[in-house]
Amino acid sequence: MDPHLLRTFVAVLDHRSFSAAASALGYTQSAVSQHIAALETDLGTRLLERRPVAPTPAGERLLEHAPALLLRLDAARADITRLHNPHPTQLTLACAPASFTPKVARALTDLRAKTHPLNLRLRTMARDAVIEDVLTGKSDIGLIDGAAAPSDPLPVPDLGPATTYPIAEEPLAVLFPHDHPLAMRHSLNLADLSQAHWIDAPDTAIPLGRLRAITQTDGFRPRLHHHGSDLHTLTTLIAAGHGLAALPLSLSSAPNTTPVPITHPRLTHRTELIHPTTPTAPARALASLLTSP
Amino acid sequence: MDPHLLRTFVAVLDHRSFSAAASALGYTQSAVSQHIAALETDLGTRLLERRPVAPTPAGERLLEHAPALLLRLDAARADITRLHNPHPTQLTLACAPASFTPKVARALTDLRAKTHPLNLRLRTMARDAVIEDVLTGKSDIGLIDGAAAPSDPLPVPDLGPATTYPIAEEPLAVLFPHDHPLAMRHSLNLADLSQAHWIDAPDTAIPLGRLRAITQTDGFRPRLHHHGSDLHTLTTLIAAGHGLAALPLSLSSAPNTTPVPITHPRLTHRTELIHPTTPTAPARALASLLTSP
DNA sequence: ACTCATTACGAACCCCGTAAGAATG
DNA sequence: CATTCTTACGGGGTTCGTAATGAGT
Hints:
The structure is a homodimer. Chain A has two domains: 3-83, Winged helix-like DNA-binding domain superfamily/Winged helix DNA-binding domain (Arc Repressor Mutant, subunit A); 89-293, D-Maltodextrin-Binding Protein, domain 2. The first copy, chain A, has helices at residues 3-15, 18-25, 29-43, 57-82, 102-114, 127-135, 208-215, 231-239, 281-291; strands spanning 48-49, 54-55, 90-95, 119-124, 141-148, 162-177, 188-189, 198-200, 222-225, 245-248, 257-264, 268-276. By secondary structure, chain A is α/β, with parallel strands linked by helices. In chain A, strands 3, 4, 5, 6, 7, 10, 11 and 12 form an eight-stranded mixed sheet that branches. The interface between A and B is medium-sized, with 31 and 31 residues.
């Protein structure tokens, strides 16, 4: 189970094709074929069906482990190479869209004032991508958000060693188009909305699967799926009546929309900071700015 | 970062010696030296100090990842090979000591009655070892225990895909020698005992580090450390006045000891079942026996 | 027939053991 | 000087690419 073999296994399933995976990895299709054959011999089972390429049951099991393994391998390398460059002049911050608040922006100006020269890089991406970015060292520090019971930590997939700190908590709201019949209410029971029209935008809003898990119902079925990390697109969709989404209350400035806080069950929108166990110096500075006041 | 190299890296640090690691792994000492050299070249840093053998800072980082990686690699292989033998006649159950209750024993007799032939194997070990055993397929199913807030799940290190079910909850108690001044009380505030004499027995009782985390204090310092998974030894130590330990209330039958339930903070002793995402048939049967009634 | 995966085969490379060398206590 | 790690080197095995073969639509 050489990591190289796992990597091509994942690539083959990503591309649903041996030859496409080969060119993506810079191998020849023969090499890819041999990699898969080697894995199948090693594990004593067929892992893939060919034509069309699809995982067998055994392949599905392997696919549950392989990406996590490869991620952690990258994380280990990142943790070590970070030690080489202890005082970098660059800080890369990965943000989930709804986690980037005025408070964070102010912390960045404070950081600029006290640390210089400082080359700031900001990247917006989905929550899981933030965690991956931080663990693999592509970003130095990250901001994630999600729904949780008050003062509970966010449920984070534990893919490697990292430290998280809460930095903000605020009411969780459902964003309605301003002419929606419920838009004038002052409080909401989330479960009452399970059959409403929802937009699934897991990269920006609270994922619908999370709402299902919280309410332990089978509702919250999406009418429309928004892939991407742009909040503006999402609020515009909501304003146009394509469906609802759960967002932090402070995102109420979107035109033609009205947020209504969820009062039951007791939930908050929580923002957390995540950084490696041994962060770079600027990352540590930003972390202390965001957590101390 | 070949897994073989990581394995010898871990072995070298386990044995604090290249040559000892070599003989443990069935390699020659030269091969071990080459493995470490290859890792160090690949990562561009020295990972170990020699004579005496000790990890450098970079080596410490790697040591944080390598065992988890190797474990997950084994877990992946176990998940796949399990598919090969779908109706095994053997069931291996891994138990943390305080998780093996009369209820579990009864479930095993029920299982015997309805499934046969059945070759039962029972293994007692520390909680972390149970999880590792289940993930790597050395045991088919496991029982773990710990302290948690009522109806909260146990905090389990997420080392791979597995399913957990709660199977029992009961009061958490401190076990005193029967002549201890506090042994006649009916309720306890855990924080009041932070400066008492404690026995750290992480494999059998609630680990003292967990008590520190729960109370957010710096107390609960051990006077004596008990390594091993035998509850009898622990209760005998307590009876002899060597110190206290936190255990489930039902373990009150130990001679010359008295359990007093912890009433503050609100805590329970919780037992959970853990099995792979795709358990073997007997494991599934036992799981349904333990969870349904 | 065309696309895509497998097999055959050879050259370059890697990996481990033997054995000799260096360093440390 | 004895123990322990490192280095040099060679055989055997592995890996990848080229190219030919086979299978599916």
